[in-house]
Amino acid sequence: MFTILSSVLSYIIMDDFDLDLIDELCSSFFTPCTSQNTKNENDTKNTNESLLTSNRKRTSTGNSLENSKIKKICLLDTSNRSIIDEYDEMNTLDESALQMLCEEWEPRSQFPTLLTRVAGLLDKYRNIQSFHNWQKKCLDLPARRKNQNLIYTLPTSGGKTLVAEIMMLNCLLHRHLDAIFILPFVAVVQEKVRSLQSFADELGFHLEEYAASKGRYPPIKRRMKRSLYICTIEKANSLINSLIENHRMNELGILVVDELHMIGEGHRGATLECLLTKIRSFTPQPQIVGMSATLANIDDLLTFLNAQFYEERFRPVELEEYVTVNDIVYKINRNNSNDNNQLIEHRQLDFKYTKQHLLNDPDRLVGLVSEVIPNDSCLVFCPSKINCENVARLIVSFMPEKLLDDNREKRSILLESLVEVNEGNLCDTLKTTIPYGVAYHHSGLTGDERQLIEEAFLDGILTCLTCTSTLSTGVNLPAKRVILRSPYVGSHFLTFAQYKQMSGRAGRTGQSQTGECYVIAHERDMKQLREMLFTVAENTTGCDSHLSINNNYAIKQLLLNVISLKICSTYESLLNLLQKTLLALQADRLNVNLENLLDECLQYLVDTKIVHAKEDERASNNSSNGKLKRFIYETTKLGKATVEGSVELGLANSLYNHLRTSLVNMNLENPLHLLYVTMPFDLPNITIGFRQLVDRIQEMKNEEKVVLKLLEIDEMFLQKKAVGLPAQQNVSKQTMLRFYIAMMLYDLFKNKSFYDVAKFWDQSRGTIQNLYSQVASFAASILYFSKSYDEFWPYHELLPMFIQRLTFCTSLEILPIMEIPGIKRGRALQLVRAGFRTLRSLARAQPDHLMKTVLNLSLRTAQILIKHSKRLLCEQAEDLRDQAAALVEDI
Hints:
The chain is of the alpha/beta class. GO terms for molecular function: 3'-5' DNA helicase activity; ATP binding; hydrolase activity; nucleic acid binding.
């Protein structure tokens, strides 16, 4: 043990770390989150004792609640509902409002300092000087005060997330426990990490990203600060597994789920239900908070989570809804039950179209857009990615040239920034539309491009975005007017939940009194559109359990998880766990028999050698109990590896065989073979471009072509396919596809830009980036999967650095610098060539020297680079100290 400790400590004092520098950075960069005043040793000792006492409190005390001066919101009935429907006034964000954040803060002398700092940060970084009335009421609910489970709903843009963030701050700073925040998409996780980083720096807690290939299992056990984990659904499930396995669930105080309605959406919804079921099986259970703009089956969800419910119809900006057919605008009237009056003729569009204009824009979309821009903002939701780009070009083709003068300088800077992130390239559509303040936004863009476009839209540099439906559940980009180009998402008709998400983007708080949503439709769509908009019965379903879909896949995964984590081991305990699921509550309606499902799924796990069943000597031999009921269940080595790596059940055996076979002839002269090995099995169905593939292979060196021989891919076969000749394929289609994508990504390893790679392989830039992210994520799964097998030790050594290269998509030379948030490959190369090869060298630099040394580097950018380098260096040092402390804990 002490040998291991010495090894860890040696990393702290190795050449890459200057202890004087670390001490200086830690003292200057971080300030204590509890007080800004100097304290003597006795005060510090008392503070630590008080915090330790507070840490043991999982719920608020009754006396403190009774003495509270803040009025409680009483529950209106036994179903735990609290529905408030009144005019919502703004309240000053003063000490009385924030007192709900940590009313029992100990020691009390620190409380005013904390309030001042939180209020100051909300004002500084969010421009929030006041709470809405509903937010105060929600924070004052008994469920919030007693740390009980809570579900609340509010229309989009109503301020739901702020309430959740306040509750998480309460948990981190007052209860001194960790928090998990679950968000639906990787991009939203990344945006939330950027949004909260300043709060973490100034309030003194750790912010950790769990998305794509990022995330550590188990997380570092912190000595002083608490951690806020920002996760996707899948990463949160893996994180919970690691906390359970390491007996650290007592460190977790709250779990917040954004977009809770996703529990009723396919495979990801089933994963979310499994995660929540595992948490509900623990005592004491961390607080669960769920929020959404659209929730159905609310009674089932309340029972499933044993939660209280708060519903608010408040919207900071009034929403006006319209449907347009040809040039007639109909207003949606939701206050009249008469079917004939639900769509009321409102006005006629008066945009002056020529005959040619009408041929180009028969739906009169440009007329609706031109009523808003350039003085206000507009989002146009389109059914497909290609339609987004076409609509953006259509809009600017109608725009007068005088619009080119609006924000000319800022739009030029935006174009330059887009060229920079694409390393000298820019797509023709954005080059044409951005000067007019118009751009498109969809998954075909890289993450850097999307971020620049989003920021430009929020700042008013861009006034119109054409986008796909994913934007409605992604980063919050409110607009004066939202237009649905068609009542379709892809080839499917719009659902009510999708409509609510998209229309929820209409209205910018503080900038307009109303928000507008227009749906462009044809006469043939009107019957179906009316049903979607007004048929209440069809809009009250959607949060149904998906545990039993896909041949009960999610149930098998849940059973494997709880057996591996030793939560359950007998038939009775497994059945008891299933009875706590959302599926159990809906079993009659979904026509599901839990015992039959359990029997079937257990038999599958045993037959596939994922789970081992051994005779339970305590069980009765009475045959009526059934064979499966007389066993104790344990995971095999394969089952354990499947859980550790978060690998799909159906792929576990194939992955093991694949890794074992690949080890025999592993080629490490270049990254190509390792790219192939870490390629996911469930790849998108991409058409193989044999001509591009042959061109690339002809450029390869002999040592690179070794991979072709290892995979038994015949060059002659590829050449025949490239010219359209018939050829007999001697490898599987999956092997060919995995090699094809590996060749694509290999170009990025050679420091080619996303733009150049996408252009050569005839794919979108976003597709290339998404593939790269999938490989990085799967490589991380392989790393944890392989740790269960001693024979896979080479993967333990190879993959950590390889995953870092995949995460930052760069060469080893600039990898350390790429950890700095927001830095691009071009800038990192500049810094390395100027001699700044490590975070330590950047942290020690002076801004003026850095500015003079690196070409086209402003003083402000130099200061930001140095600041981030200091923060990252301090975090690395603190991580090592925490790991060292964990090694000697309880010795």
